DNA sequence: GAGTTTGAAACT
DNA sequence: CAGTTTCAAACTC
């Protein structure tokens, strides 16, 4: 088990790491989300609950303020004690012997100690235990994941030739705890005290927000054996989460069943990037519901720590099993649309769906919408038993996949709204199942970085973006099946460098860079959108190249964490509502041309601007003149437009009134009566009237009036003659 | 539409 | 952090 070091995490872009502005997504029903290890009558018992807790802010960082967690490896005798704030980024130890995973802030150190003592830090491999998961902390309680005994693992059928695959790798991500975590049948989960899970960043902002409910999610793979872990937990397939020292609540253990044939490779040095430094704004909730569960499917907005701007990709999969139910109090549409997750307006959700390998995904363009929608056309017919349908995952087929109800599922992943949401999608360089825990206040999505040999049986068979239904009565948590591509895309080069066996990532990264010009991104990309109907050449900014695209995004964020943030944001207190985040640097344009980003945004230059000869300030006469001219021009345009519209309307009206009388029958139009002779006669009349006025020394105004009056008389005569002619013609015809 | 100007971003 | 380069948008003709 590896965890990204704080140093590495510090390299993560702010969008990913910063969560200050993120607020909880309201949960309609606390304590309703749960994970079902298997279809069973116990579906009503969720693994996690949504009960709001005070100071429930939980980040991926497993932080404990006071509680001390101590775990002892029965085999190695290694004891790890942790106390104080604990970040998940720190490695945690896994004790194969006692089948426990200990989230330990000093795990790395303990691991070193264990290693020096002859105990390999990655003990998980030894037992071939596959999945793990997370923690859901409950107040004050450390999380211990207990792995199932591997002694008798009949179902483990590793792919021939892959020695590493036999050694399962566990990815554990603990985000936060919930107070009301409910044990799932056969699964025992102990929760940590919320305070322990609280991250420093969160603590700074909201020490204890009772209003912010914590939502945690546990992702697990369930053995298909259908064995009820509650009564008897097969050592092979179950992992167990134990609660330690829970002063308030009794420790609860969640037994996590693991797939028999997981191919995850345990690669030392692999780390899970979990925002160590900053509290994740939202935690992606991945919930797995028991297929047999009668509970409706629920969708959860899943923020992705990819600052893509404002796109929303939604994947909707519907099956006849059960209706989709929005886990959050918000409507389905709301899940799709940007949701004010954070206090900062503009937070938006995006559902990121790797489509490269998903032929059944359709990209939907919504007119007038900046959001991209993706629909999964063909719903995966994942059976309630969770049996993988894909042959590719044959090795895992025996394993009982997580209870994935593929009934109607809907997932929306909020993509990092530039300044509102920051989250981390930890990318394990090695493929492996990952545990996702979430708090109500924050959701974090942990996605498999690479093709998940082991967990795929459970998830890969589902369409990307599929939301695994939470347990009936469970919280507003949904488990999203996210293809590995997304994780890899989100991952950054820094992670690659850390990976001991990062050949995959490194190679892909190089390839991506070669194919995607880093400096030549179009507006679509800059806006976090897919290119559509663009004139791009060899465009990779599309769903077909989502992997490359996300890598490029990650690269951009590496270089400039602000890359996808809107440049025009809200100013400080007392300042203008809108201001440039960086300020312009104009030298020759005087900040009065669109070269200036401030001017272009129609905002004044501020003190942070470094422009020279700036004229874009409130009192600037040049600016005022420019504005006046612009306003005048705009007014003129509007007037002209209005005049044209009115004239057009009048003409149409005139034609409508005259045409039926005159044109009917003979089919001649009124203007056909205005012959050359008629015009000449009319003009002569007008000239005569003008002469008359001149001779009588009438003032100009009176002369004009006389001429116009004469013109009116002429028109009346013309119309009258036309009508008479029409009438005569009609009578003749009769 | 071609050429020039400009400034942000990337790069060193 | 400063200087240089690159490049696409804005602008001009």
UniProtKB/TrEMBL annotation:
Cellular component GO terms held in the UniProt record: nucleus
Keywords in alphabetical order: Nucleus
Any one Pfam family match given in the protein's UniProt record, by short name: TCR
Compartments where located: Nucleus
Domain CRC: 508-619
InterPro entries: CRC (IPR005172), Lin-54_fam (IPR028307), Tesmin/TSO1-like_CXC (IPR033467)
Identification of the protein by name: Lin-54 DREAM MuvB core complex component
Source taxonomy: Eukaryota, Metazoa, Chordata, Craniata, Vertebrata
UniProt gene name: LIN54
């Amino acid at each position: 088990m590896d965890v990204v070091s704080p140093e590495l995490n510090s390299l993560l872009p702010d969008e990913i790491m910063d969560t200050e502005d993120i607020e909880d997504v309201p949960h309609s029903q606390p304590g309703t989300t749960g994970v079902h290890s298997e279809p069973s009558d116990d579906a009503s018992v969720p693994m996690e609950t949504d009960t709001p807790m005070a100071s429930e802010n939980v980040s991926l960082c497993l932080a404990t303020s006071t509680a001390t967690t101590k775990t002892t490896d029965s085999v190695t005798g290694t004891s790890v004690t942790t106390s104080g704030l604990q970040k998940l980024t720190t490695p945690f130890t896994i004790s194969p012997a006692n089948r426990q995973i200990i989230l330990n802030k000093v795990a790395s150190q303990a691991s070193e100690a264990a290693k020096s003592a002859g105990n390999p830090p990655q003990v998980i491999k030894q037992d071939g235990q596959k999945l793990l998961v997370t923690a859901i902390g409950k107040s004050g309680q450390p999380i211990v994941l207990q792995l199932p005994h591997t002694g008798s693992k009949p179902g483990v059928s590793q792919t021939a030739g892959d020695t590493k695959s036999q050694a399962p790798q566990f990815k554990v991500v603990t985000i936060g705890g919930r107070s009301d975590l409910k044990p799932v049948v056969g699964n025992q989960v102990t929760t940590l005290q919320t305070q322990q899970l609280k991250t420093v960043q969160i603590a700074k902002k909201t020490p204890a927000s009772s209003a912010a409910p914590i939502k945690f999610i546990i992702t697990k793979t369930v053995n298909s054996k259908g064995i009820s872990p509650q009564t008897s937990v097969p050592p092979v397939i179950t992992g167990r989460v134990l609660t330690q020292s829970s002063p308030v609540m009794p420790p609860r253990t969640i037994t996590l069943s693991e797939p028999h044939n997981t191919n995850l490779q345990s690669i030392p040095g692999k780390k899970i990037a979990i925002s160590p430094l900053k509290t994740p704004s939202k935690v992606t909730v991945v919930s797995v519901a028991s297929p047999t569960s009668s509970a409706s499917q629920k969708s959860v907005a899943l923020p992705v720590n990819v600052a893509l701007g404002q796109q929303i990709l939604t994947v909707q999969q519907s099956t006849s099993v059960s209706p989709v139910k929005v886990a959050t109090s918000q409507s389905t549409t709301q899940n799709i649309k940007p949701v004010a997750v954070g206090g900062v307006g503009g937070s938006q959700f995006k559902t990121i769906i790797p489509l490269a390998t998903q032929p059944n995904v359709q990209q939907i363009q919504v007119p007038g919408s900046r959001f991209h929608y993706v629909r999964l056309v063909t719903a995966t017919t994942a059976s309630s038993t969770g049996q993988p349908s894909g042959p590719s995952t044959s090795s895992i087929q025996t394993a009982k996949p997580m209870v994935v109800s593929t009934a109607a599922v809907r997932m929306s992943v909020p993509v990092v709204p530039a300044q509102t949401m920051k989250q981390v999608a930890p990318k394990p360089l090695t493929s492996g199942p990952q545990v996702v825990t979430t708090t109500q206040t924050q959701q974090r999505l942990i996605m498999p970085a690479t093709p998940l040999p082991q967990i795929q049986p459970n998830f890969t068979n589902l369409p990307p973006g599929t939301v695994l239904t939470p347990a009936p009565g469970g919280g507003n948590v949904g488990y999203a099946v996210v293809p590995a591509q997304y994780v890899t895309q989100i991952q950054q080069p820094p992670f690659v460098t850390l990976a001991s066996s990062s050949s995959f990532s490194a190679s892909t990264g190089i390839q991506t860079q070669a194919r995607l010009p880093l400096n030549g991104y179009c507006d679509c990309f800059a806006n976090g959108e897919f290119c559509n109907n663009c004139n791009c050449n060899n465009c990779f900014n599309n769903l077909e190249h989502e992997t490359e695209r996300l890598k490029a995004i990650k690269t951009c964020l590496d270089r400039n964490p602000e890359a996808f943030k809107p440049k025009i944001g809200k100013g400080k207190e007392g300042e203008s509502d809108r201001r440039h985040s960086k300020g312009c640097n104009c030298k020759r344009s005087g900040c009065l041309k669109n070269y200036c980003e401030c001017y272009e945004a129609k905002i004044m230059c501020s003190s942070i601007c470094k422009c020279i000869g700036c004229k874009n300030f409130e009192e600037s006469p040049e600016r005022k003149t420019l504005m006046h001219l612009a306003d005048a021009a705009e007014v003129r345009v509007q007037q002209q437009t209005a005049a044209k519209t009115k004239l057009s309307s009048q003409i149409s009206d005139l034609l409508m009134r005259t045409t039926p009388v005159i044109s009917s029958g003979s089919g001649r139009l009124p203007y056909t009566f205005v012959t050359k002779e008629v015009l000449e006669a009319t003009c002569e009349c007008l000239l005569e009237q003008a002469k008359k006025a001149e001779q009588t020394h009438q003032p100009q105004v009176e002369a004009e009036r006389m001429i116009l009056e004469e013109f009116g008389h002429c028109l009346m005569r013309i119309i009258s003659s036309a009508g008479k002619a029409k009438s005569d013609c009609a009578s003749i015809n009769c």
